[in-house]
Amino acid sequence: MYRLFLMFGMIAGLSFTINVLKIPHTIPHLIRPSFDISLPKPANTGVITINKIGKIPATVITAGDSLARGKGSHITNGVLANIGYYLVRRANNTTPGIARYHVIPSLSVDGSSVEQLTKRLKAQNKTLAKIPNLVLLLSFTNRDMKHFVMDAEKVHSTNQLGEFFQLANILHHDSKLYQHSLSSLTQTLADIHSNRVKILGKKLAVMQVGILGLPNESYAPKVQAVLHKYHVTYGEISYVINLFNTDDQKAVVSARSYHSGVTYSFVNLDKLQVTEKTALADLSPDKFHPNSLGYQSLTNYIAQNVLVHQNQKFTVLAKN
Fold first, then answer.
1. Which residues, in sequence order, are CB contacts of 154 under 8 Å at separation 6+?
2. Which CATH number does the domain 2-317 belong to among 3.10.450.50, 3.50.50.60, 3.10.180.10, 3.40.50.1110?
3. Whole-prediction pTM value?
4. Which stretches in the chain have pLDDT values below 50?
């Protein structure tokens, strides 16, 4: 895994690699870019509005992986308190009865990839089509990033330059596959919305989808151990996180341009800035997932800009 990040230099500066190829003397045994590798954090995009339609409150459902399920948190009022639960509680504290949190257990499974989530959403099409005023919060990127790491670990070569290009190709290939999977996800969501309109009517079929970007968990002891073992820097892991989060944001922008009737937003959880001491205090005993305080912190970030309008809407503004 130590060498899996060697590809980043090629992406950040292809001209550097070309120049290396022109050097007449022997190429060093280990090629590692000497310059900084960086990729801007994608901005939050869109809004999530929680409000009643007539007397019908918004129904918030989380779907995806362990973060969506709330792994590491505790049971509160009979449910595992996750981001969706705390967001509803916060909305109801502002405007009582404006929202309810609903659990569909099969939609949130630890380790789910975007492809697996899409299949589960398809399987729950009929159920989701009957829920008026729906807000879906989706989290799934962790598994897909792991796919890239697993693919990269398979690369073993005595030719360091050849390995460099293989890893760069894996990153490009996996990102393209991920983008394709995101397109399939948004198409599935559009199909669900179409069924909702048929069953509920256009007014009650309002459907919002918030895609939660991958948080940077480099402070977690388990992650720190891996980074140390393989001599991976914070900048290198941040590059991969930013790449996948950028794919998420682009998918949201693209889906919004289709005007399918679904309202999309992207919330980059990697932008949450807390001290390392606070971050460690917000971890569950597994030293990786958030505890209840961690989920509340993530929720507070999502709802950091809250406006309560005269028409009693609770609006989460996705800002930089």
1. none
2. 3.40.50.1110
3. 0.81
4. 1-36, 156-161, 306-310
